[in-house]
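Much of what follows relies on a compact textual record of a protein's fold. Each token is a code from a learned vocabulary of local backbone shapes. The record below shows the convention in full.
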Amino acid sequence: MYNAQGRPWSNTTIHELLRNEKYMGNMLWNRRSQKLHTSYVRNPETRWVRAVGAFEPIVDTAVFDATQARLDRYKSKADEHQVLASISRLLQKTGRLTLRTIKQQLDIPGRTRVRRVLPSLEDAYRQVGYFPAFDIAYVDHRITAKKTMAQYVLDVIAQLEASGHRVERDDRLSTLCIDQELRIKVCVTLGCKENTFQPYAKATKSTRFRADLVLVGYFPRPQIRLECFYLLPESVLDDFVQTTLSPCHVPGVEGFRVNDLSLLITLCARVPIEVSDELSHDNQYR
């Protein structure tokens, strides 16, 4: 759908259209209010002022009310028991479960937020009687590692911004751009084992976001505690496949291993360069 200027409607515009009573002819005041030097607050419905029939309606009242009922139904939050019951029905219907199908095919409102309701995906699978051959705990461990890594990244961002740097990031904190110059990809790894039976971290080169550096947080299983970081150029990683951060795959990889992110702060530091117009005695004839 496009507006009068030929631009596609945004999600915000569509949501406003579905919620705004002006389209059914009513005018509302005092839904939000603001006192001096304070933020806007949403007032309770008892304080709203409504003028019914202020405009000629362009949407039927019954259609508008049905839309509000459906939006309110999807806004409701399901508890853990409702989520497990819905997952059980999905398992009976499809015969298998994945995190993607759970987010897309559950028959309850707010299915995209069910991961926040379930403390553990592994426990949820067990409770509904699903025992797949693959490692279910890997998903839970990876989510735990990402949350921990996000806290470290937020701390670094706060330090950089306090030092006067401009830091751009995406919602998932998976990409950073510092001072519109240094691009960093952020990821976590749970490690793997090679023939030497020593755990190694792994990293993948991004195909959508070309970065200068890759920041890898290493959380070896089963402890899922941060062991170290790897801050390395993206150019040392293989294309299209995961790169094992071991000496045989990346020579000198231990030189990129750090225990904290102070090195990143140092890399971004600005150092003034003083230029003198006077030549030294040694260079005046060169």
